[in-house]
Automatic annotation (TrEMBL):
NCBIfam families: HDIG (TIGR00277). It comes from Paenibacillus roseus. It holds the Pfam family HD_5. This is HD domain-containing protein. PANTHER family: CYCLIC DI-GMP PHOSPHODIESTERASE PA4108, CYCLIC DI-GMP PHOSPHODIESTERASE PA4108-RELATED. Residues 13-207 form the HD-GYP domain.
């Protein structure tokens, strides 16, 4: 897949790393606001989790990686992103490519450090059944493992075209069920200690949250 010749994401010559990445995120916001807003919340959640874990030295790169994690969705059609029905094989293929697409964009922009690898691996699973490479356990970069938890949590706590949101307690139970299979147990445990913060952060979503209980 050569992404760089796609005219929709090519801003022209002479752009360097940070403005280029910022420009692409602006394009993502224009393409699909819900995905952009999700990226912002995943980064905010990641900040809380990484601070609680005490990994200050990785804090900025993890926040950046989480903000950029779904950049590759700039290539996914709105029909697929907003679909409420079962996705076709072709649509799933588009979805499964987005970590690689985001990684390639960041590599092209010359973004240094760990951030591109967090984007590339944010859909890996602890048990090795994730994508794109099926890495397992600590083979998965720590920032990508944290992003996977933050990503899943935000997806559960916000309303989606294909699913209603959960309340914080329901989402934490769901995370716990998948700790040690999908997610890093230590990170999940840390999130449990942040439940008060989660209630505060998602307070504005209570209207949607309550809809699941009707
Ligand atoms: Fe993703």
């Amino acid at each position: 897949m050569n992404l760089l010749h796609n005219h929709r994401i090519w801003p022209g010559k002479g752009k360097s790393s940070e403005p280029l990445v910022g420009w692409w995120m602006k394009r993502l916001r224009e393409h699909h606001l819900q995905t952009y807003d999700h990226c912002v919340r995943v980064a905010l959640l990641a900040d809380k989790i990484v601070t609680a874990l005490g990994h200050e030295e990785h804090r900025l790169s993890i926040i950046n990686g989480c903000f950029l994690h779904d950049l590759g969705k700039i290539y996914i059609s709105l029909e697929t992103l907003d679909s409420t029905s079962k996705l076709s094989d072709e649509e799933w293929e588009q979805i499964r490519l987005h970590p690689v697409a985001g990684y390639q964009l960041l590599q092209f922009a010359g973004l240094a450090g760990e951030v591109p690898s967090y984007v590339l691996h944010h859909h890996e699973r602890w048990d090795g059944r994730g994508y794109p490479y099926g890495l397992r356990g600590e083979e998965i970069p720590f920032g990508a493992r944290l992003c996977a938890v933050s990503d899943a949590l935000d997806c559960m706590l916000t309303h989606r075209p294909y699913q209603r949101s959960m309340n914080v307690d329901q989402a934490l139970i769901e995370l716990q069920k998948n700790a040690g299979t999908q997610f890093d147990e230590q990170i999940v445990q840390t999130v449990f200690n942040l439940s008060d913060e989660l209630y505060r952060m998602y307070a504005l979503k209570l209207g949607a949250t309550q809809s699941i209980e009707r």
